[in-house]
Every structure is written in C-alpha cells, then in structure tokens.
Design a protein that fits this description.
By secondary structure, this protein is an alpha/beta fold. The protein has one domain: P-loop containing nucleotide triphosphate hydrolases (Rossmann fold, 3-Layer(aba) Sandwich). Helix content is 35%, strand content 28%. The chain is built from nine helices and nine strands. The chain has a six-stranded mixed sheet, sandwiched between helices. Strands 2-1-4 form a three-stranded antiparallel sheet. Strand 8 and strand 9 form a beta hairpin. Helix 5 crosses helix 6. The C terminus is likely disordered.
C-alpha cells in the first residue's frame, strides 16, 4: 500500500507564560515579583493554516529560520502536539527521529525500556521482544542490558534511542536534522543506517538548516515564516525563496528553535 501524508489547515495554539518586567535596574524588586507574583498564562497561535500533501516518493524539506515553526510542525506530524485546528491524515507506518530520549524510564533497565518504547511505537509485545538483541548490539550496550537507564551516560542514551528509533523500516520517516553527536565510529554507522532508512521509506520529512543535505535528499520543500507556510514547491526553488526572505528581512532578536 502506498504511503500518504496530508496536513489540512493545521493550526496550533500553545500556552505562553509571561511576567511583567519594568526595567533592568529594578534589582531586588524583579526577584521579589518573580517569587510572589505568578506569571500570566496566555494562548498564542504557533502554527497557522499549514497545508501540504505528500505521496509515495516524496521527500519534503521544511525550511525556515529559527523560530519559524519547523520543529513544532514536526511534533504535530508525529502526534506529540494535537492540532488546535485542522487535521493530519496518514496512511502507512510512521517513525520520528526527533528527541531520541523521549519516553525512556530512568529507573527501568535497558531491556525494559526497549520493550516499553517498542510497544509505544506500535509494536506487538512479541515484535518488541524480537528487536531487543539488535538494538543492544547496534548501540553497543549488550553488557549493560540489565542496568538501569539512569546509569548510562548521555552519549550511551543517545545511542540506545537512535538504535531503537531506527530498528525497523517504516513507510514515513520524520526527522529533525541529521545525527552528528557521539563518537566518530558510531556517527559513521548511524549515518549509514539513516541513509538506508531514508532510501527505504516511501515518504521523508526533514527539517534542517543544511541546504546541501536538503538538495541531496529532498525533492519538495515548504518555506515557513512566523508559523505559516509561505511557499511550497520544488526544493531548489524553495531554497532560493528562503534565501530571498533572509536577505530582505533581518533576523529578529529572541528567535527560538521552533
């Protein structure tokens, strides 16, 4: 069955917490106000009217400055944020390479975490059990199978999360950048696996600042600005469009990584 991914009129509202700041010289008053005056909660529209449709063979680059909404859109696509308006339609199995440590239990063993994450990924218990040895071998953590997750270093957790997230080939692959953390030997092995999973996927969605990577992987692109899709088309034209936006409008102080 051919994979399919469609975003229809996606909007997302998220709570923002703010506190009045009356000046940099307020000194102790600022600290007292922060301690005794609760911050104000307000809802802000983070994404607005996002529309695109992808079919088997499509590789979509999400292009935009920091704070444009790229990572937030990826989280909506994988279900981490339910859209406030609109809908996401998919056909085919989907896997995300975003926060590789998300969903781990620090007090559970590595084997227990693989089982729990595997089931959370949609695997049946038997299938989740079937990937344990492969995940431990790829992450080079066989000797720590019975150790609690909290005993691992951050690099070891990253290796475990990556090995688990890429253990199976999926129809739709959603990614935030290319893996670059860890020792050189593991990074080379991980990049080879990513290439294999990208080539085997029917649809790929990639958010990145690496224009060379996007040209080599993607055939389509969307340009995002202020949480909106301002252009959708062939990736090379979208990169040209993005460059014109960057040159014509200065970057704004306080841009985040959304």
């Amino acid at each position: 069955m051919d994979a399919y991914l469609k975003a229809s009129n996606i909007g997302l509202d998220l709570p923002i917490y703010t506190q009045d700041q009356r000046g940099a010289r307020a000194g102790l008053n600022v600290l007292l106000r922060a301690a005794f005056q609760p911050p104000k909660r307000e809802m802000r529209r983070i994404l607005s009217d996002v529309n695109f449709e992808l079919h088997s063979g499509d590789r979509l680059a999400i292009i935009g400055r920091n704070g444009a909404g790229k990572s937030t859109l990826l989280k909506v696509l994988v279900g981490a944020y339910p859209p406030s308006t609109g809908a996401i339609e998919t056909s085919g199995s989907c896997q995300a390479l975003l926060n590789l440590s998300l969903g781990f239990n620090a007090e559970a063993t590595l084997v227990e975490n693989i089982l729990l994450r595997g089931i959370a990924m949609g695997l049946k218990p038997r299938d989740a059990s079937g990937i344990i040895n492969e995940v431990l071998a790829f992450s080079e953590l066989e000797r720590k199978a019975g150790h609690r997750l909290r005993t691992l270093s951050s690099g070891q957790r990253m290796r475990l999360g990556f090995a688990l997230a890429t253990a199976l080939q999926n129809d739709i692959l959603i990614m935030d950048e290319w893996i670059s953390a860890g020792d050189a030997a593991f990074v080379a092995k991980a990049k080879a696996r990513i290439h294999s999973r990208v080539n085997g996927a029917q649809i790929v969605v990639l958010a990145s600042h690496n224009s060379k990577l996007m040209r080599s992987v993607c055939n389509k692109g969307i340009v995002m600005e202020d949480g909106k899709v301002v252009a959708f088309g062939p990736v090379r034209k979208m990169l040209e469009k993005y460059n014109k936006i960057v040159l014509s409008t200065p970057s704004r102080p306080g841009d985040g990584g959304a």
